[in-house]
Design a protein that fits this description.
Layout (H helix, E strand, L loop, with lengths): L2 H13 L9 H4 E8 L4 E3 L1 H14 E14 L2 E12 L8 E11 L5 E7 L2 H4 L5 H15 L4
Parallel strand pairs: 1-6
Antiparallel strand pairs: 1-2, 3-4, 4-5, 5-6
Amino acid sequence: MHDHSRCHAWREFLETLRLDSVSQLDVLAAPDIHYHDPFVDVRGLANVKRVFVKMFDDLDAPRFTFTHCACDGDTCFLRWHFTCRPKTIRMGLPWICDGVTEIRFDTEGRVLVHFEHWDAGEQVYEKLPVLRAIIRTVKKRVSGWRG
């Protein structure tokens, strides 16, 4: 399977992801898939399915919108915007995160590695009022900025 068609299938899975479509992972992902993001590091199809199901438990209206795709051999990178509304934190506007997904395929064209690259500090923790002040203070001290 051509690099871009494998990448397109994974991209389409994520763009149209719903709770009832998580089972598509059985076809798209390798049994020993490795999933990693700033909060989770799991291996195995059953564990990755639990990550996606938990996303729907924790978030209202999670949605990926992809802006770019680059592939080289068995590796592809997808640039995305992710919007959601955390169920436990009611703050009006949806949260928006930007990041890149790195995916690698096995010899059968299934996703073997799914790594999310994004800044949890800036895009999640700084949205929480109590943590925002702490993180900004730490950033100032680390950067030497005294403003």
